[in-house]
């Protein structure tokens, strides 16, 4: 076993690598002060490269986002791509960045590395939105793409997002392959931030690219005769991000009226000065937009997050209150827009492919059953949805037209294989104008869709827990019934599946909130069972031996993350999972029923949410926030 270096040896290694005076001095000062705790936090565990690339707080150390870790990531990525993508150097890399602190320098250093290894570099000078990079990778048939952004994270964070040659985010085993190359190429080969300006291999395609992006958006025009003509007024907030000029151009391209801006939030601001957390999902994030809309007499709010890859919307009701649409509700509305668009272009519905993440609403599945398009759910994240759409296109000949996840991410053009808040905004405004011309509000139109496809009500939120051991213990108690003290959950009847390979008995709950559990899928241990209530009653719940190949999920299993899904007899669906980037246990709870009995569906949802908190998560006992 290799002996670990001392923390001071790691500090010396960092100091020898770092040429950024700010972060270099940070480690030097900590070393001089002999602050071993701080040094351990910053240096001991390297930042992990995964399917989301890199994302962390910006400060010194191997575990953080800084010039050293960005250069090392670029070295590993460029060498991996060179070895695995044909003609990688000539096909080139697309590099863009947002407005966050250090985003530009991180992009410049990345460009310098790729130039050092002989790549053509399509450097998107100036501020870019995230969707422009995956579009550019497809548009130029590039070998890969990099976007420097932390999306909606707090201001002190930054990230390094990677797209592969197909224009989608990377998935396993590509991520682990890149990670291994990064680990083998730690010594800095070049440290430069000016070469992108003069190097012969740098190609400026920014203006051409933007023109092509909006030309592609014309394929999303529902009806060339559809105009707003001042009938609807909508307010837009960029959340202090880069979205405003792109969203303005999108509305112009689609023949829609311009938006009314939230002036205080329209310009890029790396401090995100008017929001505590620049994420349109967060409660209160649209407060300033609501204030502006009330002042301007607008009835619709549209929003993008700071890097413009997410989209949010709200509508003023007759009583003066504002209805903020959930991510699932917007997904349903945009899916219906996609259906209208396909029909307007005479594309057969049975050739359409739509997907969403497994934690998103099952209403899209219900819509598919009624309308006849192909539907599939995937693991969480657009890396999975985009690659699934490509697979369905290549193997089944289907038209990859739509994907969404409940976290306000929407893909409405197959030429942008990631969530795109700008095209989603354009499609939503067109739909709003279209249904307004039919005498509907957005909310009343959504109600008509509930009549047609069923009423689906969701409650998605999270618990905060900074203790990884506690999180794992909570999931072990759900999975194995290993709670050491009496609790409500310990008293609930459980399954009795004995796993031959592991020697462990899987003891999941047989009921939640008083309703029998009918389905379980555990993507941490690799277990899935359908019609559980029927199975258990047929054998009177004795021990059921599980051997290899039995009860295996279709979706990818990952022992490094926690994710369990339950379905209940009262048409409930619950997914519990850990976050890959934040200290959160996320829950996604949905109940469906008949639209004529909304009150019963709402009551069932409230009961299920309460049961998950008290019985399953044991939030009070575990002191979860």
From TrEMBL:
**Which family does the record assign?**
Belongs to the phosphohexose mutase family.
**Per the UniProt entry, what are the Gene Ontology biological process annotations, in alphabetical order?**
glucose metabolic process; purine ribonucleoside salvage
Per the database entry, which stretches of residues form a coiled coil?
none
Q: Please state what the protein is called.
A: Phosphoglucomutase
Start and end of every Alpha-D-phosphohexomutase alpha/beta/alpha domain?
47-187, 212-316, 327-453
Q: Which compartments is it annotated to reside in?
A: Cytoplasm
- The domain of life for this entry's organism is Eukaryota
What are the record's GO terms for cellular component? cytoplasm; nucleus
Q: Which Pfam families match?
A: PGM_PMM_I (PF02878), PGM_PMM_II (PF02879), PGM_PMM_III (PF02880)
The molecular function terms in GO held by this entry are: magnesium ion binding; phosphopentomutase activity
Q: Name the coenzymes or cofactors required.
A: Mg(2+)
Q: Which keywords has UniProt assigned to this entry?
A: Carbohydrate metabolism, Cytoplasm, Glucose metabolism, Isomerase, Magnesium, Metal-binding, Phosphoprotein
